[in-house]
Specification:
single chain; 130 residues; mainly alpha; two-stranded antiparallel ribbon; 4 helices; 58% helix; elongated
Length: 130
């Protein structure tokens, strides 16, 4: 396979670095372990274990870092929850019923119709402020 060439300072040189596609291709992408014979499976597992042992210190360090981040996030969540529960809910403004607002606007007949309809629909709340 021919490598790409690079022009620098007027000289054409062949690069020795592999292309990005070559560098990021995982050679085991096309390997299906169950399709390998016993010898191929042994080589594949040995390669996997060598790769794992090589990467183990970085993996352990990453796991520890993530554990610390998780502990910090859980601590923050507990703090935020405790703060939220500590504060009283804001007082709701006094709301006027539809009937009261209609009476303020001078629509007394509309307010009377509304009160009558609400008493028919919800007799258990008749006479209370909605």
């Amino acid at each position: 396979m021919e490598r790409p060439t690079t022009e620098w300072a007027g000289a054409t040189t062949q690069t020795s670095r592999p292309t990005i596609a070559e560098a990021t291709t995982d050679p085991s992408e096309d390997v299906r372990e169950w399709e390998l014979d016993a010898n191929g499976r042994h080589v594949w597992e040995a390669g996997y274990m060598v790769g794992y042992r090589t990467a183990e210190p970085q993996l352990v360090a990453e796991v520890e870092r993530l554990k610390q981040l998780l502990e910090q996030a859980e601590s923050d969540a507990d703090r935020y929850y405790a703060e939220m529960c500590r504060r009283p809910a804001p007082a709701e403004p006094a709301r006027q019923s539809f009937s009261e607002l209609s009476r303020i606007r001078g629509e007394h007949d509309r307010a009377d119709r509304h009160d009558k309809r609400m008493a028919e629909m919800f007799p258990q709340y008749a006479g209370t402020r909605a």
